[in-house]
Amino acid sequence: MRSASPKHHRRSTVISWVRRALGVIALLVLGAVLWHAWDHQAFIAWREDAGVVPFFLAMALLPALGVPITPFFIVAGATFGTLVGLAGSALALCSNLLLCYWIARSGLRPWLARMLERTRYDIPDFEEGTGALRFALLVKLAPGVPLFIKHYLLGMASVPFWIYFAVSGTITGLYAVAFVVLGESLLEHDLGNGALALAGLAAVALAIYLWRRHMATRQDAE
């Protein structure tokens, strides 16, 4: 990646944190609206008619086109319950990771590369795996970058598949578990599980923040 000036880096960091704060506020507002305003019986009726396979197939395919995956996790928990929601979300997430990696390594790679050339980032090459794990973590934990772009970038950078799959699946999976539980708690008005899910999200966010801070300190020391 090309180096950025300290001023630009600070501005990007502030913008990223503002976006995250707005995202958290929007999520809380949405949760409050769902908690107090929706028609519980109407949703129950919709849930009885909802198809498991079409829903999780959409979760596997649409995020590869840029559709956010977080709402899918929440609706999965609210619609199918925690057990089915987690199992279906795991299969959909794994399928999405496979699809994005295949697209990034397919004949569409030159077109994706031209699109990326318009940004301030270069595509490194980790064909031999050296430094690939650190790069995968840096990309997956980068703030403000859409999920599908992260997955395509890792595939285009020739990050070994097992590193790409393990890092992407683990990090996204941690959020998925919390959001699925949160989705069911919103439907059932379960304050205990809802608080547990929010605490889990906060713990993951704190861990990511501490890791970024550690990496920034380490980079400055070098």
Structure description:
There is one protein chain. By secondary structure, the chain is an all-alpha fold. It has one domain. The chain contains nine helices and no strands. The two termini are 17 Å apart. Residues 1-6 have low confidence and may be disordered.
In short:
The chain is mostly helical and 222 residues long. It has nine helices and no strands. It is 78% helix and 0% strand.
What gyration radius follows from the Cα positions, in whole Å? Answer: 19 Å
Order of helices and strands: HHHHHHHHH
Quantity of strands, as a count: 0
Mean pLDDT, all residues: 75
Shape: globular
Q: Which structural class best describes the helix and strand composition? A: mainly alpha
Helix content percent band: over 70%
**What fraction of residues sit in β-strands?**
under 5%
Biggest pleated-sheet summary: none
